[in-house]
């Protein structure tokens, strides 16, 4: 349990690097790639999203979860100031290491199709607001209650160690407002993370520290090239980025204490802190690899983020990927080339 939380806490400290760039409106077209949306009303894109997480200990790989979703995005309005886009979850398959969690999460995800997220962007495609936020927040609150009702009913002893009120409050913080919800909506982050950004063409290396101040080495490559061999275009472009972050061992311990102080019961807190203090720590390494491939009009083609955490002899890996499956671009609605599915 402790190692799993350690890995989770450390992964949260290594955020996507490629998003740290100047805004597109500040850039010169000759020296950079601008990630800008040139969408049209009624554009429709379907994607398959996959989220895989596993841990490796003593050469054994244990899959912690695998999630696969089919989603659809439709541009319902397009103006000079931006776009209004409707996001639909078509279907989702959930598989967790824990069968109870699988059952609970599957039931929640099955209901996601009942809620459509309608969000607005600026003229560059940067997400700004969830237009039906009240409806989405109500659903998230209801779904969270269903999850915790089931978990604590099936494992009543859990409340003694992890009081439900504290644990549930931590989860609720991920959708306390629009910004928190969008930051934790991982498939939308993959699709629109870089819109409105601008990155220099070519290879760039730097040793700037991470947002959290940890030592970090980053290599970013940005260029033009067909995103997809069969259904791509000459003006497509891509951004590839790899960063290696070192979290000093003293920081690892502090992060653990910060996490547990928020969720564990007062009765067990001293015992947990004693356990944390008794561990012989070493520096943690987090390797963050990002690949963002775009069609020439700014629609995402194939996007992947992976995180590899090495800590005290164990590894944790998480891979998130979203790839287009079908498309219909309104401006080309009479051209069959733009309606073909990915094969």
Mean pLDDT: 83
Number of helical stretches of at least 4 residues = 9
Query: Which percent range fits the helix content?
Result: 25-40%
From N to C, what is the helix and strand string?
HEEEEEHEEHHHHHEEEEHHEEE
Strand order of the largest sheet: 7-6-5-4-3-14-13-12-11-10-9
Q: Which class do the helix and strand fractions yield?
A: alpha+beta
Basic shape? globular
Radius of gyration, in Å, reads 21 Å
Biggest sheet statistics: 11 strands, antiparallel
- Unreliable sequence segments: 1-13
Strand content: 35-45%
Distance between the ends: 41 Å
Number of β-strand runs: 14
How does this structure look, described?
- It contains 9 helices and 14 strands.
- It is an alpha+beta fold and 343 residues long.
- Strands 7-6-5-4-3-14-13-12-11-10-9 form an 11-stranded antiparallel sheet.
- The two termini are 41 Å apart.
- The model is unreliable at 1-13 (pLDDT under 50).
List the helices and strands and how they pair.
Blueprint: H1 2-11, E1 22-23, E2 32-34, E3 44-57, E4 60-79, E5 82-96, H2 99-110, E6 117-121, E7 127-130, H3 133-154, H4 158-161, H5 164-172, H6 178-184, H7 186-192, E8 197-200, E9 202-206, E10 216-224, E11 237-247, H8 249-263, H9 266-278, E12 284-294, E13 300-311, E14 314-328
Antiparallel strand pairs: 1-8, 2-8, 3-4, 3-14, 4-5, 5-6, 6-7, 9-10, 10-11, 11-12, 12-13, 13-14
């Amino acid at each position: 349990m402790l190692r799993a939380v350690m890995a989770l806490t450390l992964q949260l400290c290594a955020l996507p690097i490629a998003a740290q760039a100047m805004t597109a409106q500040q850039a010169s077209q000759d020296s950079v790639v601008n990630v800008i949306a040139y969408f049209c009303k009624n554009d429709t894109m379907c994607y398959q999203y996959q989220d895989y997480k596993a841990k490796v200990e003593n050469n054994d790989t244990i899959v912690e979860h695998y999630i696969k979703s089919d989603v659809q995005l439709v541009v319902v309005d397009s103006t000079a100031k931006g776009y209004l886009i409707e996001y639909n979850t078509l279907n989702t398959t959930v598989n967790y290491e824990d069968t109870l969690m699988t059952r609970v999460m599957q039931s929640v995800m099955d209901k996601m199709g009942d809620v459509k997220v309608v969000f607005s962007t600026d003229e560059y495609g940067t997400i700004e607001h969830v237009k039906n936020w009240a409806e989405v927040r109500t659903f998230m609150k209801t779904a969270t209650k269903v999850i915790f009702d089931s978990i604590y009913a099936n494992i009543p002893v859990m409340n003694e160690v992890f009081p439900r009120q504290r644990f549930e409050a931590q989860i609720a913080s991920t959708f306390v407002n629009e910004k928190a919800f969008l930051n934790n909506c991982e498939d939308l982050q993959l699709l629109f993370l870089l819109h409105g950004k601008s990155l220099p063409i070519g290879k760039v290396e730097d040793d700037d520290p991470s947002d959290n101040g940890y030592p970090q080495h980053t290599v970013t490559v940005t260029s033009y090239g067909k995103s997809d061999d069969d259904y791509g275009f000459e003006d497509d472009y891509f951004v590839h980025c790899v960063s290696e972050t070192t979290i000093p061992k003293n920081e690892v311990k502090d992060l653990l204490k910060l996490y547990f102080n928020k969720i564990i019961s007062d009765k067990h807190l001293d015992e947990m802190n004693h356990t944390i203090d008794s561990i012989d720590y070493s520096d943690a390494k987090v390797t963050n690899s990002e690949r963002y491939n775009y069609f020439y009009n700014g629609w995402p083609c194939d996007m992947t983020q992976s995180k590899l955490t090495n800590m005290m002899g164990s590894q944790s890996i998480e891979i998130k990927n979203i790839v287009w499956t079908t498309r219909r671009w309104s401006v080309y609605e009479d051209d069959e080339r733009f309606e073909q599915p990915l094969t």
